[in-house]
Structure formats: structure tokens, C-alpha cells
Predict the structure.
Amino acid sequence: MKTTQTRRDMLKGGLAVAGLGVLGMPEWVLPALAQGEVLVPFTDLPETFPAPTVDRRQLDVRKIDGPFTPKDQFFTTQHYGHPDIDPTAFRLKVSGLVERPQSLSLEALRAMRRVEIAAGFECSGNRRPLQGLSGNARWTGVSLRTVLDQAGVKDTAREFVFFGADHGKEEVEFRTQKYEVDQQFGRSLSREKAMSAEPMLAYALNGEPLTKHQGSPLRLLVPGWYGVANVKWLSHIHLQEDQYLGKYQARWYRTLRGEMIVGQVRWKESAVTHMQLKCFLARDSKDGGRHKVLGVILNDGTPIKSVEVKVDDGPWQPATIDPATNSKYSWKLFTYAWTGATPGEHTLVSRVTDVTGAVQPTAEALETKKTFLEDNSQHPRKVMIS
Ligand SMILES: Nc1nc2c(c(=O)[nH]1)N[C@H]1C(S)=C(S)[C@@H](COP(=O)(O)O)O[C@H]1N2
Ligand SMILES: [Mo]
């Protein structure tokens, strides 16, 4: 009875609060492995993660040891490699349907009102077994709206297009014809989204200038959205009236799913935008017989109501969200104390519920989703206890 009450009280506050340390600051409950604590391997994970290549690095989720992902561990992926940008010659252009076209140096951007936000994101292709295309950082930069206000957005501007300096040859198909053209990486936002409070132009990650992998010197960050929205090496913002239909906007990042609408399956193709409610288990460790299971929650910023863990066919048990990750767009880390683990193989799975009542779906419930992007299904992992 008492524990039920406590839990309800914690949920009223939005998130479970694990404890307050000295000075009333939230205490970090997820340190690196403590002395005497050993990693218990998930048997669905390889012993070592794929070696990073120039273009792709995954986060070894077992090594998460704090709220923010260090810059040299932050995952990275992109389509056209890394463009070389001289930060002193760099100018961000703002053109199209604006009163005052802009050409802004890094210095000019740094002189504008600074904003800072903790935000995590995953690539829309992030999925089992690795889940390593995910990370969390403290981003510093300038609000997109500050730059747009300086340029003066015209009433006719509907579509805000963000181009990276990276580009490559693309075949554009039109009926029976194919045209090879050189295109810049581009993504767009609606006027409403672009002018909203959150999107920012970030020049620093965890307090240091962006690395080349992270889009140096400037990237767009749309908190709560999948990684693809966060255009790296941002060089040009163009405001227009018509829809932007570039490859990575209109074709590559699409989800095809069947939905039941008045008793009939409708096949819906939608753009990858905000993150779907998701959590996954990152590691299991033990100290003697006591296991500590660590997991990660990612979503679009909707407050979280609960996160739970289930062992084999047991009941869902509440897990605890780390207060150090308790801000709107941060990823949330959680722990679950697993006691009484018996020898043999066990299956562990987690699920997250938000305050709207949305529950992370099972893989079966996602079967009508044909394309692999936006896989937010519950992810069972296996451990072998000796
Ligand atoms: N300019 C540019 N920005 C880009 C991309 C790209 O190919 N070019 N890839 C996007 C995708 S698909 C993802 S998941 C994120 C990855 O960001 P990261 O490398 O900082 O983790 O960058 C996004 N921004
Ligand atoms: Mo991505």
C-alpha cells in the first residue's frame, strides 16, 4: 500500500525522482560500472560493436555512463561524407521570401542571443539489435527564430528549406526518364515548425565547438525529431512558397504503414518527422546477485508517465527514471533493480508510456509498418545467468 502511494506521488510530479544528494541537487544514479560490478552480456549483442568508419559510428549503448554522450562517442551517419568548411570564411545564407537576405558569419551568429538545450535523438533507422544510432547532448547556439526575425519572414513563405554544404550526384527519375544532377543535402520544415520556439542553429555540443562529424561549424537541431531533421554543415536557409521535394525530404525518409480506417486497410505513406515513443535496454550489470538494468527513453518531448521492465513471463515492474535526464527533450535514462535472477536464459523487455496514455507498441503491433524506419517497437533482450 505504502509503495503504491509513493509511486503515485512520484508520477504526479511527471517523472519518478530517484533521490536528492548534497545541496538538494539530483543525484546521478547511473555511474559507470562501480567497483565489483560486472557487465552481464545481452546475448543478442555482439561482443564488440562494429568498428567505426569515417562515415558511420554507432554508440556502444553498454558504455553509457552519464546523461550526455561524449563527442567522440556520439553516433554519426550522413549521405555524402564530410564537406570541408573553413570556419573563418563560413557564411550562413538566408534567402528567398525574406525582407532582408542574410549572410551571417560564425562571429555574427555567436553574438546573437544564446540558447542552450539538452536534447537527444536517434536516426530514424535506429533499431535492434544495436540501437547505437542514438545519443544525447547539451547543444548551444541561436534560436532559428532569432535568425528568421532578423531576415524578416514574408507572409507568403510557407516552406523553409535547409541545405547542408554536402552534396552528391543523384538520379532523379521522371516517368521513363532519369536525370543525373548534383544536389545538396536538403530538408524542409513548415512555417509553423520553423517559427516555433524550439528549433535552433547549434554551434556547440557539450560546451565545445561541433566536430566535423557533428556538422561543424553549424547545424540545425529540431528537438524531438528524428536525426534526419538536424541538417549538418548548414550553409543555406531558403524560404519559398511551394513544397520542397528533394530526395531526402520527399523520397528517402518515408514510412509506409497500413492503418485500419472504418474497417478497411489504408496504406499511408508519411514523412519522418517527430520521434515515436520508444525505450530500449542498454545493459545489464551485477554486483553479487543483484542486477541493475539500464535503459534509454527517446520521444518527441511529450512528458513520460512510466517506464517498466518485464522479466520472462512476469508482471511489468516499474523502473526509475534518472533525474539528471529529466528535461523535456533530453533522452531519459532509467534503471531497474532485478533481484532473484535464477540460472539459465532470461528475456528482459522494457516499455514506456507517456502522459497521453500512448504505450510503446510491441513488434507484432507494428507488423503493418512495412518500411524499417521509425521502429519504436518493444525490444526483448536475452541474458544467460550461470
Ligand atoms: N548535411 C547533412 N545533414 C544530415 C545528414 C546528411 O546526410 N547531410 N544526415 C542526417 C541523418 S539521416 C542523421 S540520423 C543525422 C545524424 O547526425 P549525427 O551524425 O550528428 O549523429 O544527421 C542528419 N543530418
Ligand atoms: Mo538518419
